Amino acid sequence: MTLTVIGAGFGRTGTKSLKDALEQLGLGPCYHMIEVLQNPGFAEHWLRADAGAAMDWDAVFGGYASTTDWPACDHWRALADHYPDAKVILTTRDPEGWFASTQNTIFSSLNTRLAGDGSAIGQLMRGIGARHFGGAFDDRARCIAAFQRHNDAVRRGIAPDRLLEFDVREGWERLCRFLRVAVPATAFPSTNTTEEFRASVAQRLAGLRRGALEVPPK
Predict the structure, then answer these.
(1) Which tens digits make up the pLDDT trace of 24-59?
(2) Considering the entire predicted model, what is its pTM?
């Protein structure tokens, strides 16, 4: 299996909805940050990639046909070079709406607690924040500038006939035309809302607390 679709958009641009859509279209499994959270060993791959190591991308994406979200979107250029036949989708949204969404989800204090430990996942999350935003998750101007800078780089770096700039609110039509697949009869997925995200993070934090309580004293 090889990647056929590379999602280059930042988190909170509908990347989970796109993941679900691609899988519904038969272009999955789709790799997303959720895969890393569910498989902590995956984070080690991305720490090496972030450090500039030579990567065996086929091993990293073994069993996956597409990818969206962080951490892969930070390596869109390397992935586009390695998989020259893959199409690239840049999920976008209004920058102000994107920033507001981050403040209630991935950049909220609730989520940044998950990045506060010494685990590989924590290191990965802190690295993403430092690289793009200088760790200043609540700095509106800085975050929006990074968001726009990333999107502009993708627009410049990918040939127009290979790139789809896509707002998930558009639904199926343009996406399916770009991917040359039939339009499903079902509604386009809308998942990982702010409420769903916060409930999921709270559940993971509760699990971490339970795990800490279960560690026997030395």
Answers:
(1) 999 999 999 999 988 989 999 999 999 999 999 999
(2) 0.87
